[in-house]
Amino acid sequence: MGGRVRRLGPDRVAFLAALVAPLGVLGALVPFRDSLPNTSVVLVLVVIVVAVAALGNRLAGALAALWAAVWFDFFFTQPYQRFTISRPADIQAALLLLVVGLVVSQLAARARRLQVVTITDADYLTRIHDTAELAQSANAPETVVDHVTAQLPEVLRLRGCRFEYGTLIGHPPRLEQDGSVTWGRRRWDADQFGLPDTEVELCAFGNGRFYGRFMLDPTPGTIPPLQARLVAVTLADQAGSALDTAAGR
């Protein structure tokens, strides 16, 4: 009587992919590293991290991000085939890969819980990457806040956006962390009706502390998809983290 074939669950498959996929993809790209810019390689790795997190969970996504950063260092930073980095630009690229990978893995895991297609759109990933890079290099958190304020109208197709520092005032509709919209105690069907035709707040938190809110001015008749709303939440989180880092200095 033959033994039963043991099937691997999605989480185990995701952990296996987190260990194998970054190494396999980077190994395949090694012959082209002289012609491939590191930013392109980073975006490829971020897509892998997204796929792993969507298949498994946050921990699998975080492991994929860490492993991708390690093998990126080994294969694509000088001196090659050594776990050392000699150039500041390569150090920054490796750190950004880790930061962006962790951020996007959280986003992908959140999308997976909502049973939606995970975010692999290059434009969305580039916006998250650019904001993370700015947060690493900006001397003032206001620079990151201004950057996100300029990004949100493009992501959500808004008429405008502004940022308010300080405490919450009033009870406008709110874009929540899971991409849903609430208005008072009611849930607004953003997938069918888009954002309400009034200012919508998107709060910026850093380490659990409230620092302000982005006030969104929706364009009537537009329906930003859930993916776009999740990206907007992630950008706001990055601004909140920048403000929290500055407050702790």
TrEMBL record:
Any matching Pfam family: DUF4118
Location within or outside the cell: Membrane
GO cellular component, one term: plasma membrane
The keyword Ion transport belongs to this UniProt entry's keyword annotation: no
Highest taxon, organism lineage: Bacteria
Gene Ontology terms, MF aspect: ATP binding; phosphorelay sensor kinase activity
Protein name, as recorded: Sensor protein KdpD transmembrane domain-containing protein
Lipid bilayer topology: Multi-pass membrane protein
TM ranges: 12-30, 36-55, 62-79, 91-109
Gene3D superfamilies in alphabetical order: Backbone structure of the membrane domain of e. Coli histidine kinase receptor kdpd
Domain Sensor protein KdpD transmembrane: 16-114
Keywords (A to Z) from UniProt: ATP-binding, Kinase, Membrane, Nucleotide-binding, Phosphoprotein, Transferase, Transmembrane, Transmembrane helix, Two-component regulatory system
